[in-house]
Every structure is written in structure tokens, then in C-alpha cells.
Amino acid sequence: MQALIAAPDTEDGIRLVEVSEPVPQPSQVLIEVRHASVNFGEVRYLGFQPAGSVLGYDAAGYVVQTAADGSGPAVGERVVAFGAGAWAQRAAFATDSVAVVPERLELAKAAALPLVGITALRTLRAAGSVLGRRVLVTGASGGVGRLAVQFARLGGAYVIASVGSAHRGEGLDALGAHEVVVGLDRISEPVDVVLENVGGEHLVTAWGLLKPGGSLQSIGWASGEPAVFPPNSIFAHGSAKTLQSFGDASHPRPELTTLVDLAARGVISVQVGWQDSWKRVGDAIAALLGRQVPGKAVIDLD
Ligand SMILES: NC(=O)c1ccc[n+]([C@@H]2O[C@H](COP(=O)([O-])OP(=O)(O)OC[C@H]3O[C@@H](n4cnc5c(N)ncnc54)[C@H](OP(=O)(O)O)[C@@H]3O)[C@@H](O)[C@H]2O)c1
């Protein structure tokens, strides 16, 4: 079968090659992958992947072999999955990281959901109820951001979406943002929750915008810039403000089930801003790192 592997000797750092078939563990299903998605972290840190390893984490396709332990979906089911080795014609996934995709949802859209959706759901939930609260989403134009805006709005929040330029903010109001702002300078009132994707200066400024008792969920560091906190800027009168890390996408079947259900019912919109053959994955990577993809990049295993 064919797969996209880490190839540090190439310009893109990726090569489409023939590899051996995966051998599922007893608790894994084998999936024929039809679509996969490209995540920022996977491509920004591509150079850290061991040469020859099969890349990718988000996939959607059909079950071709059930798990030996009897768990998980049956052969022929349409599924979405999260786990290493997704950019391959066939991939093995733990059944606790797989969910059945409802008929009404296209597989390509399902493939866009796993990592960004698990992240947006888990961090917003970690921040507690947002009903009637002010939520700031930074890097709102990206994959995590476009879902986080929708989830915060669904949760009853007043949603502020921060982007890098007016063009990058297009469509965020329709997704539920009450305000779309370029940068963070024009936010005059404090917020209760921040879902922070950019890092660097954004992290420092967003911390300063947080109310006493507020929660900042540090999701990503897309800027790659250092964050310099002025002396005493962490001190705050009143209830403690918290800065919480996120890095746990394990056992995500419940979240995957929620994501595909919400998308199938039209409660959330899956924003695919780039879709083409996996032979053009280099273009997807360039577009993503160049901040040109509104939402997700999806590759078709054609
Ligand atoms: N902790 C975890 O487990 C976890 C899980 C998923 C994602 N992440 C991280 O979360 C971040 C967002 O992920 P994503 O999938 O949403 O990525 P994405 O789709 O590429 O979106 C990232 C957004 O960040 C903004 N951005 C990029 N470079 C920037 C820069 N130099 N300065 C300011 N803003 C910049 C861009 O918005 P504008 O173009 O509008 O500025 C872009 O839309 C990434 O850092 C990713 O690695 C972490």
C-alpha cells in the first residue's frame, strides 16, 4: 500500500511511497482511509518525525477488519479516527479513538474534525460553563479557532474572535462570533475565558485581558514567538486566574461521536478551506503554514 512518510532528505520533508501493511493490535480496527486532514503541529514540527514514519493523525474511511477483541465498529462502517499513521491507504486505530460517521455527513468533512475538534471541545469544557460569559478565541481563523468559536457560541458565550487580518476573519461572524477583531489591541473589556492558539505576545496580552477567576487555555503557539511577561504581571487581585496547558487527546471516542453528530445535524459547520489529492500534500502544508487556509486542509487518498 502507499503512504506519506517523513523524508528529511526531500524539500517538503514528505514522500509518497510503498510501505508494508499495518498489523492491528487486538484492540485496533483496520481502516481503509479515504480522506485525512493536515494539522498545523504535524507539519510545523515535521523535522522531528523519525525518517520513514507514516505521518498524519486524522482520518475517515471504511472499516476493513474488525478488532480481534470484539470492540468497535463492524466491517463496512463509515468511520472517523484519530491516531498516528493516518496518511496511508490503510491504517490501524484503537477502537476507543474511532466513531461511526452518520450517513448525512461526508467523509471528507468528518476527516477534518478529529484533532482540532477534540482540542476545542476539551479546552472549552475545561474552562467550565461559558453561559453568559465573555470568551476570547485567538487564531480564530484556523482549524481549532473556527470550531472553538462555534462551540463557545453554542455554550451561550459572548464570543470575541481574534485574527491576523480582516481577510482572515471572513465568515467568523456567521459562525457565531459577536466581534471579530484584528489582533488584541481593541478589546477594551476583560474576558472570562481565553482559548489561546497563537502564543508569544498574544499569550501575554490575553493573560492581561483575563478577569479575576478567569481561565486561559493555552492550546498552541502558532506564532513561534517567545512570550515575555512583564514583572508582576502574573499577580492579580481577587480570585486566582489560571493558565492551563492542553495536550491530552487520548481515548477520544466520546468527543469524536459528539463532533460527527453535531456536524451531521448541521449544528456546527465544518470549515474545509483546502481540499485536493494527497499527491499535493506539499501545497496543503505551504498554504497552512502560510496562513492561507480558512479552517482545515483535507487530503483525498485518490
Ligand atoms: N495542545 C494540543 O494538543 C494542540 C492541538 C491542536 C492544535 N494545537 C496548536 O494550536 C494551534 C492552532 O492549531 P490549528 O490547527 O488551528 O492551526 P491553524 O489552522 O494553522 O491555525 C493557526 C492560526 O494561528 C494564527 N497564526 C499563525 N501564525 C501566526 C503568527 N506568526 N502570528 C500570529 N498568528 C498566527 C493564524 O491566524 P491568522 O492568519 O488569522 O493570524 C492561524 O489561523 C497550533 O499552534 C497548533 O499546533 C495544539
TrEMBL record:
Gene3D superfamilies: Medium-chain alcohol dehydrogenases, catalytic domain, NAD(P)-binding Rossmann-like Domain. Pfam families: ADH_N (PF08240), ADH_zinc_N (PF00107). Transmembrane segments: none annotated. One of its GO terms (molecular function) is oxidoreductase activity. Residues 9-299 form the Enoyl reductase (ER) domain. This is Oxidoreductase.
